[in-house]
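Q: I have 251 residues here and want to know how they pack in 3D. Can you give me a structure?
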Amino acid sequence: MNPWAILGAIAANAVPIVGVLAYGWSIGSVMLAVAFEFLFGAVLMTLKRVWHARRSGDPVYLPDAWRARHEAKHRRTSAKGPPGEPRSPGGEQAQWIIPGLGFMLFAGVIPLAFGKEWPEHQAIWMPHVSEIGWAVFGISVSLVTAFLLELPMLARRSFASLEEEGDELQSRAAVIALTIIFAGPAVTWLQSPYAWLALQLICKLPVDLHYARKDRNVHSLGDARPKTLAERLRAMRERNAARERSARGDG
């Protein structure tokens, strides 16, 4: 169990809840805040993979092992065409940044549509710049703090646990999409922003806490990871030599 991930999940979810309860934020501002949380989380997940590839010493990143993993994954997911070139560790996760931008656009359009449909309730729907600014600030501080506190143990995790965490972004995206979709009718029916909070507490928060509490095999690479500067330099030279042999086709 990663206490810093749990802390980050609770703090990030608390930002829109406190905003609505204490400062009367609109649903439009809260929707954009949740969409930003997913986008920023995808960016941090990409940085995690890049950091892990450079610091962990996990043999899965050696060119031959990385290509074999890519080809095996291609066989499992697609039977058509050649596997092509494998993506970099960060590139595999960067693909989630595009859906995150889509969420931002989706969360920006929905409040405008609902505010136009029910102009008498625009105060509930229309986002405000100051609210969005504070939401982005609060969520960024929460997620970056959890990210920085996790870095010392990140290199000791296995690649499999990090890959599993990246795959969970798909479930997070589905939960956020469902929360946004069902929040519209709920808020419109009750004419209260508290309907959004109920959906967030029932749908989004439990999923975030479930993934944050999962065991990530923090100590799985504790003995294999290079510990001294000389060992890290030697491992780097071995990786570079393996890449050169792979490029020449020496095997």
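Q: Anything worth noting?
A: Residues 219-226 have pLDDT under 50 and may be disordered. The radius of gyration is 21 Å.
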